[in-house]
From TrEMBL:
Residues 1-23 form the signal peptide. The keyword Transferase applies. It comes from Prunus yedoensis var. nudiflora. PANTHER family: CYSTEINE-RICH RECEPTOR-LIKE PROTEIN KINASE 25 ISOFORM X1, CYSTEINE-RICH REPEAT SECRETORY PROTEIN. GO terms for molecular function: kinase activity. InterPro entries: GNK2, GNK2_sf. Pfam families: Stress-antifung. Residues 24-130, 136-245 form the Gnk2-homologous domain. This is Cysteine-rich receptor-like protein kinase 10 isoform X2.
Amino acid sequence: MVSSRFLFSIAILLLIMITQAFAQPAHFCINNRGNCTTNSTYHTNLNTLLSSLTYNKNGNAYGFYHSTYGQNSDDQVYAIGLCRGDVKSKDCRSCLNNSRYGITQRYCPNKKEAIGWYSNCMLRYSNRSMYGVMETKPSFDIRNPQNVSSSGVDGFNQELRKLLESVRSKAAAGGSLRKFAYGNATAPTFQTIFAIAQCTPEISEQACSDCLVGAFGEIPECCIEKVGGRVSRPSCNFRFEVYRFIEPKMILQLPSPPLILFPPPPSTNITTVSGGTYMFVPLFRYKVN
Ligand SMILES: *[C@@H]1O[C@H](CO)[C@@H](O)[C@H](O)[C@H]1NC(C)=O
Ligand SMILES: *[C@@H]1O[C@H](CO)[C@@H](O)[C@H](O)[C@H]1NC(C)=O
Ligand SMILES: *[C@@H]1O[C@H](CO)[C@@H](O)[C@H](O)[C@H]1NC(C)=O
Ligand SMILES: *[C@@H]1O[C@H](CO)[C@@H](O)[C@H](O)[C@H]1NC(C)=O
Ligand SMILES: *[C@@H]1O[C@H](CO)[C@@H](O)[C@H](O)[C@H]1NC(C)=O
Ligand SMILES: *[C@@H]1O[C@H](CO)[C@@H](O)[C@H](O)[C@H]1NC(C)=O
Ligand SMILES: *[C@@H]1O[C@H](CO)[C@@H](O)[C@H](O)[C@H]1NC(C)=O
């Protein structure tokens, strides 16, 4: 007879394997963007840039970092770092630092362009500017190998679709500091589905939405009828699970838009009335962004 203790150990082992599969980083070395030899100006600039990427001036306190370094156009390097919305600054910097070593030394040495995804962050660099450009490739996906119970598949899919739509529109509407949203839903199988969606915050609402819609389109290959999955693209990513994999309490509040009582002159209207110039200043105005 198999002892329950043994089964329990197997279950734990499986859980660890699943968790590790998700924690495993994914790297893409972009070969057709060319190579850079060790100690070349580009290579040195890349190291300088990445070691300074997480300085405050390059980050926005909501897990988005971008910077560029280099004097001449042919050795200029650009980098973007993005952390999941519930990751503390300290952990974010440490994730980006680990990715830096992983990508430049272990996985993609001497590549001018590369991208790496870890469970808490994404790091990418190139010799071209990527800021504000919505990019869908390369794309990386991973699934939780466990199946949704066959009797509950339709209900699960339906709830998952609604949930993903909801986090997509919330993330896209997030504004220029952070485009990140999470939510949960209950499937008819009584499983709670948790989901997040995120874009790099500097792209537009529409671009973010388009990127996520495209990423959802990968679900059939990635993780249909699975209890978890994740698709990551350079400009956006989403993930869902039937367990709580993020810490909602850690998501920082965004500053509320300032209430402007007297708007600055450029937004006022100047009308000339016989002999004098009057400025009409609306008394109250809410700044909306
Ligand atoms: C980046 O490097 C590649 C390969 O060396 C080159 O073909 C391309 O023109 C460079 N791009 C920019 C924007 O400098
Ligand atoms: C870059 O290096 C790889 C080997 O690491 C080589 O196969 C490839 O041809 C090189 N590409 C260029 C453009 O030099
Ligand atoms: C790069 O520069 C360092 C320090 O100057 C040196 O130790 C190393 O040998 C150089 N590597 C190559 C491949 O030239
Ligand atoms: C970055 O990672 C490297 C290699 O893992 C480590 O040696 C270094 O101390 C880390 N730096 C910071 C600031 O965390
Ligand atoms: C999940 O379902 C697929 C197809 O229905 C089956 O081949 C696979 O063995 C199942 N996997 C698990 C972990 O039950
Ligand atoms: C699910 O989301 C609701 C808000 O929509 C929230 O109040 C609730 O705490 C969440 N449940 C879990 C288990 O996180
Ligand atoms: C100023 O007033 C004119 C005429 O009422 C209007 O056409 C114009 O759009 C106004 N400009 C601004 C900046 O509000």
